[in-house]
Amino acid sequence: MGQRRTEAFLLRLIVADDQADPELWHGRVHHVGSGDEQVFRTLQEALTFIRYRCERSQKRQAPLDELPPSSSR
């Protein structure tokens, strides 16, 4: 099994009283770790941002044995 990490997002969802259909919901999603935010008009746009941030975070995190040697010896 691969390594696990936690990503935190804050989802601000705007739903009018007469909008039971999720396709009409909109709002803002905030990635806590980076501070990046994205306004979305559809839930698919929110998921696209979440997927992008998770993939980007994964690329930044290298296992310790793959890091280059420290130059401060």
Note down, in words, how this protein is organized.
The protein is 25% helix and 22% strand. It has one helix at 43-60, and strands at residues 9-14, 26-31, 37-40. A hairpin with a 5-residue loop joins strand 2 (26-31) and strand 3. The protein contains one helix and three strands, in the order E-E-E-H. The longest helix is centred in the last third of the chain and has 18 residues, at 43-60. With 73 residues, the protein is of the alpha+beta class. The radius of gyration is 17 Å and the shape is elongated. A three-stranded antiparallel β-sheet has the order 1-2-3, covered by helices on one side.
Structural class: alpha+beta
Q: Which sequence of strands runs across the widest sheet? A: 1-2-3
Number of strands: 3
Oligomer: single chain
Rg (CA only):
17 Å
Taken as a percent bin, the fraction of beta residues is 15-25%
* Terminus-to-terminus distance: 35 Å
